[in-house]
Write the structure tokens for this entry.
Amino acid sequence: MPKTKTASGAKKRFKLTAGGKLLRRHAMKSHNLTKKSSKRRRGFRKEYEVAATDARSIKKLLGVK
């Protein structure tokens, strides 16, 4: 049986912690930042946990059991 390949788009976007949680970046950070408040932009720096409903399908893309 051949090895399963990791989806390259997923490996660039998600990070798996040692505890098994999936982390993602915040959306809306890439452009038009001048019209967004400093407080809002600071919130974009943090990494957020992926919603439980999406986690299963993302783990499958990453090749995690």
Observations:
- The chain is about 40% helix and 10% strand.
- The CA atoms of residues 22 and 52 lie 9 Å apart.
- The longest strand covers residues 14-16.
